[in-house]
Amino acid sequence: MSKFLVSRRTLLGASAALLASTALPRLAFGQDAVKGGRLIVAADSEPRNLNPAIVASNGVFFISSKVIEPLAEASFDGENGLAPRLATAWEGSADGLSATFTLREGVTWHDGKPFTSEDVAFSALQVWKPLQNLGRLVFANLESVDTPDPLTAIFRFSKPTPFQLIRYALPATTSVLPRHLYDGTDIAENPANAKLVGTGPFKFTEYKPGEYYLLSCNETYWGEGEPNLDEILYRVLPDRAAAASALEAEEIQLAAFSAVPLADLDRIGKVEGIEVISKGYEGLTYQLAVEINHRTEQLANLKVRQAIAHAIDKKFVVDNIFLGYAKAATGIVPQNAPEFYDASTPQYAFDVDKANALLDEAGYARGADGNRFTLRLLPAPYFNETTQFGAYLRQALAAVGIDAQIANNDSAAHQQAVYTDHAFDIAVAPPVFRGDPAISTTILVRTATAEGVPFSNQGGYSNPAIDKLIDDALVTVDDKARTALYNQFQQAVAEDLPLINVAEWGFITVARTSVHNVSNNPRWAVSNWADTWIDG
Amino acid sequence: MSLVARFTRSPEGLFGAAVLAALIVIALGAPFLFPRDPLSIVGPPLTAPFTDWALPLGTDRLGRNVLAELVHGSRASLLVGFAATLAAIIIGASVGTIAGFAGGLVDEALMRVVDAFQTVPGFLLALAFVSVIGASLPVVVLAIALSAWTGPARLARAEVLSLRERDYVAAARVIGMHPAEIAFRQILPNALAPVLALSAVIVAGAILTEAALSFLGLGDPNIVTWGSMIAEGRAVLRSSPFLSIIPGIALVVTVLGVYLFGEGLSEALSRRAVRS
Lengths: 536, 276
Known about the structure:
- By secondary structure, chain A is an alpha+beta fold.
- In chain A, 29% of the residues lie in helices and 20% in strands.
- In chain A, strands 13, 14, 15, 16, 17, 18 and 19 form a 7-stranded mixed β-sheet that branches.
- In chain A, α9 runs antiparallel to α11 and α15 (464-474) packs antiparallel against α16 (479-496).
- Chain A is globular.
- Chain B is an all-alpha fold.
- Helix content of chain B is 75%, strand content 0%.
- The relative contact order of chain B is 0.16.
- Chains A and B meet through α7, α8 and α12 of A and loops of B.
């Protein structure tokens, strides 16, 4: 399962060098966990709705995954890359019309009520399917959930639903909510969305807006001897530069999701007692993509889209914007999804002359000022890297005679402009690949069914051939046949360029060496941290 | 003694004038010195200053020429500074003159509007204005003018209040001049001198506000400004501090130059007032 941007070998080399360079080499294994203590981590955003069953996004999971658990979590060495959480076993039927989950015994909610299959049935039918951003797609054909006994939940689908997809979706989409607190209420407005009640190793204790979130140990957690920590405190540090100095001053012990700017990693990695870890994000690959508004006359022309693809120097982007902590993309499915990845898709090498020739062929000659036409460019404001790539893209397009005018917006205004008003020509977006293309990737190119859905195809692109591949794969139960369909899908996308994938990256965790069991699963930052411990 | 002669007697005023003149020459000459788009990528990223003579001040994170950015950045700073001040003085002086000359209810109403604007911190007002309307150079100019016009308005009103009782105003009334003509052709030119002395402070403030807005990402992203350069360098502050320090120095020198020029100007004007 070698699947990351920084290869295992480099990583091992780097960590070996790091171990050698620190005065007190610590042994990652074979050391007994110390109980107790408070782990202080940096939080760079304060989500208003913390309910992971409704808002399946990493910003929410970062905090809520310690309180509310999914049926299964991603794992480096578990079967099919999964480790059991609230479910201990799962099986899909051969016809793809049902999936059976055996649930864990002896689990109680933080308020003392027992956890049963009723909670799973309620969450699936009332929350994941109708309300959750990702669940809407994955559980689109979910019809009912049978609960023959308190520890068995049988999902029944109206159309064949590949169990491969359900498996990949388990960690992100199946956060189970307590039915007794949500049933009969307005789920989206329930007060428990802010003050979470779950089954996880930590209980939600306190939130002070602008200051911190405090989670404390769940004494009755089902995991034996877990959790190790007494408390987790999320200190709200929206300023990225602040995270690095807070780590150095030992005010915080861990900063995940690249809270420390990439440009600072080299320096901070040399500070004694601090380590830079690029593992632990394999299940959350971010993709840097150029979204295209196909309603714009020039961009509806395939030659223009090809020219834009040829104008982008992916190596420059990886080396200078991501400082090497990324990989050049080859298509819509990232390389660290080996089950689906197709390496033979057509590639667009960096070639300014070819881009210019394509634009000439398309009939857009340069005007007197050297420009062929003007486009509105909207870089997503979520990451430093997306805005910086916006600045780079403007220059790359200027080299081929396209004048891209940048407009910077805040998150809300950006989403409004791109996904609701469609007031853009090209946009820079960081979509996430979540293990299976059907979860959050195919929606980027499938003909839009609803207006205004963020992170979906709002560029007016519609290609019946691609739609058919997506729809077929969604009901193909056989793994091989499904993979074959997704390979065709990748080919078709690379040929027709509904969007242009530029790079793929995972995040970086920077932690003090006193924190142990960091990054030991592919979704570590958004997993439950039950086994994490700190030196006393 | 003429105003110019009085001005030349103030050394700080002369220094300010020299700095300002140099900046104006640089700003006007920018397209000839660096004809390419200053944001174009010309060299290896993060080249340190004074290591490559083709790129004397080094390059930023994307490999853009810092010197070219700096020179082109002066255009935005000066343009916004002067344009915003001009707008603020025109709005402020007009409102102040009308209020002072008309008096009564009009005066009350206009001055309450001025009060309302003065209770909101100027920078916040500009911030709100730009984030609602969207960032572009004219909007930034207007936003800054909007937060700076109240000073000139109050000053102009006070001047007008004392001038409107003068004999020549009464004479103008007697010969049947239209009130608007009296206000703007007879009174305003005489009330303008102290307002103009205020302009240097407004220019300096406007340059800083513009830099702060673009530092926060609310400037026009398609042109280079000193504020956006500082913001851009902030990400690598620990490893390449020069990216923030160089535009920072440029900003300090400019604001200092404008301020000293303003000091010299108001000194020269007040000397005249004392002697007359």
